[in-house]
Amino acid sequence: MPLFGSLTLSDLDDIVLFAEPFSVEANTMLFRQGEVATGMYFLSNGQVRLYADVPGNDLVELGTVSSGDIVGELSLIDRGPRFTYAVTLEPTSGYFLSNLQFEMLRSSLRTQALNIMNCFRRKMCDRTRSRIVQIAATITTLEGGAIPDSGVQEDKRQLDGATSPLTLDRSMLRSIPLFRIFTPSELEEFLSPMQLWDLPRGHILYTEGSPADSCFITVRGALRTTVYRYGRYEHLAVYGPSRIVGVLELIDGGSRPTTCAVREQTTLLEMNRSDFENLSQGGKEINFKFFRAINQELAFELRKLICQITRLACQGSRSDGKAWNKEA
Amino acid sequence: MCRVVAYLGTPVVLDDLLFKSDSSLMKQTYAPQMLKLMNLAGFGMAAWEQNSHNPEIPFIYKTISVPFFDRNLKVLAQKLRPTCLIAHIRGVLYDPSSKVNIQNVHPFQYEGFKLAMAHNGDLAYMDEMKFELLDYIKPEIAKKIEGTTDSEWMYALLMSQVEDPTKDLELNEILPARESTLKILKQVRNKQGIALASYVNLFLSDGNDLVATRFTFDLGCYEDKIDEFELSLADLSLWYTLGQDYGWHEDEWKLIGSAANADSVMVASEPLSRDITNWTEVPEYSVLYVKSEGNRRQVKIVDLDI
User: Fold this and answer.
1) A119 contacts A294 by C-beta, under 8 angstroms
2) Which of A292, B192, B221, B275 counts the highest number of beta carbons within 10 A?
3) Which candidate, A40, A34, A60, places its Cα nearest to that of A134?
4) Is the pLDDT at A146 greater than 90, yes or no?
């Protein structure tokens, strides 16, 4: 499977040991939207189509997953309910990894397990990028006139320089969920390489297509990501305190998939690429905690994007996310 | 925080919305899905029924008793089939200073005015803002304020932004008035130096139009609210669904018949069913309005750049 191309045979043992073969006929529902996840599927053969329920009893087609790919991993990563229906288009076979087996893999601190989880993480990045492209494609088909401006007036004032996070009030940080996961000494280690910024509303943090050198953690305020096409825009997400922004690009090495602007005056921490890699790849407890926080963030972002696709589809911006009625 | 449901469409049995759905507004009084605690302080509704006498005037019902045990409400809900509704469960701070009385129950609609409004949220330091806000509220409207809620003051402010609140307002009058209201509130907050996030999810209707906002002043900006942030975002979410014939279909409470052919729209602070897959969340900083063309209704969502 291309997904596991970077793994060694020893890494793959964890999956080979735990996963069980499955084989189903065409038109089999692997899982339903809203249900508790029982596991994920590795597809050796066949195709699975993903659908989502939307208002009016309509279904939106979200895409097709083919052999060599995986399906159903999102609900295992963030422990949320199934977000889609998955139906086989043809006889499909492969391996099934149960929720329990996935939890064993996730909670393992062994390098092999971590390498496998890294593959899932990269897959989430791929899926997130495709969903952003899917949303951007709807902009051309939005009916009516363009929405008048970007939603945030750009503020091009010269910024004060970054300061050290050592100045941050630790008790205030402890009130933010992301920082609560660390012990006091881990928190100091986590903060030490970062830079602290205070940014005014309208400041553009980065633009779509630009190279990615760092990611950001919001401490106060709110950021918002947007995609622009043909003088129009679509807002994607709002990031309040405790959210990690711009992390996908550091994982997959691509350019920024969105433009990120300051929606409310924001205090944030900036972490550069090398510090990010050191922190997310080491073998200490702090590394695993950060690794899990990033996975949660990616899963949260992906769910938001899927919501947006279904919303746009039922508002009439169909692109390749077609909406049709279940009763028809 | 409060719980709200608004509806615009074909006649619907009120009982289905208020009592029967598996997460109906009444069930939300003791078991909301997206709120940790509901400190119940009243129930109110404005329901427009086309076949009633003076159909442009809504049927208003308000109580500070526990609505789930209100037999009169249950009996009325089984008879009424409104085409438009705003229903509101009031939640207050768990504090003896909270004022629980009928004047503070939503939705607000002054006599002779067409637009009714309900609010889910909390405007911080309202007592400090009131005197400043009086500059923007018409005296004849200020005189009508009976209660003590931030919500009623916002209603009075909103109504002061339209030329004639007694006439049937069009969307192109309601939307700018709502925007102007939020801008004034922001201006007054800035002048007063109010450093606390404030949530203003508003539900407006006159029986023909439906407008809702999901908006927060200074989202995430202040540390005293950060700890509650995750909770607050969920509390202050806004959801909608659309379609035809709200009822029990395929083992679920939902609207059916396709969004493309929708004749009915429902907007709520949380879905009215345990299965939320037929509902869609409205993004932060947005205004939702219902565009009607004959019997067809579409939901439009636009950004609120305030």
Assistant:
1) no
2) B221
3) A60
4) no
Domains A2-107 and A165-310 share a fold: yes
Q: Of A53, A177, A218, which is closest to B230 when you measure between CB atoms?
A: A177
User: Distance (Å, rounded) from C-alpha B9 to C-alpha A210?
Assistant: 46
Is the CB of B222 less than 8 angstroms away from the CB of A220? yes
Cis peptide before A193, with omega less than 30 degrees from 0?
A: no
Mutual orientation of helices A285-315 and A184-191 as an angle, nearest 10°? 70
Architecture of domain A2-107: Sandwich (2.60)
* pLDDT, position A123: 92
The domains found in chain B, sorted by start residue, are 3-120+201-303 (3.60.20.10)
Q: Is the pLDDT of residue B118 over 60?
A: yes
Contact assignment for B226 to A57 by CB distance below 8 Å: no
Q: CA of A171: which chain B residue's CA is closest? A: B223
CA distance B253 to chain A (A): 11
pLDDT above 90 (res A110): no
Tell me: pLDDT of A317 over 70. Answer: no
Domain A165-310 carries which CATH code? Answer: 2.60.120.10
* ipTM of this complex prediction, to 2 decimal places: 0.87
Q: Which of A246, A241, A236, A309 is nearest to A272 (CA)?
A: A246
Check pLDDT > 90 for residue B236: no
**Residue A34's closest CA among B251, B32, B5?**
B251
* Dist CA A328 CA A60 (whole Å): 13
Structure tokens at A207: 């633009």
Residue B224, pLDDT score: 55
Residue in B24, B247, B288 with CA at minimum distance from that of residue A311 = B288
Nearest alpha carbon to residue A190 among A107, A294, A275, A247: A275
pLDDT, tens digit (0-9, with 9 covering 90-100), for A254-309: 999 999 999 999 999 999 999 999 887 777 889 889 988 999 999 999 999 999 99
Which residues 252-281 on chain B approach chain A with CB closer than 8 angstroms?
254-262, 275-281
Question: Is B281 in Cβ contact with A55 (below 8 Å)?
Answer: no
Domain positions in chain A: 2-107, 165-310
Q: How many CB atoms lie within 10 A of CB B130?
A: 16
Strand runs labelled E in B76-133: 84-91, 116-122
Question: Lowest mean pLDDT: which of A149-163, A172-186, B103-117, B149-163?
Answer: A149-163
Interface test with A, best of B239, B278, B286, B306 (most A CBs within 10 A): B278
Rounded distance between C-alpha atoms, residue A105 and residue B215, angstroms: 41
Report pLDDT for A245.
Answer: 96
Residue of A54, A228, A306, A312 to mutate for B, most B C-beta atoms under 10 A: A54
> What's the confidence (pLDDT) of residue A93?
96
B231 pLDDT above the threshold of 90: no
For residue B291, pLDDT beyond 70: yes
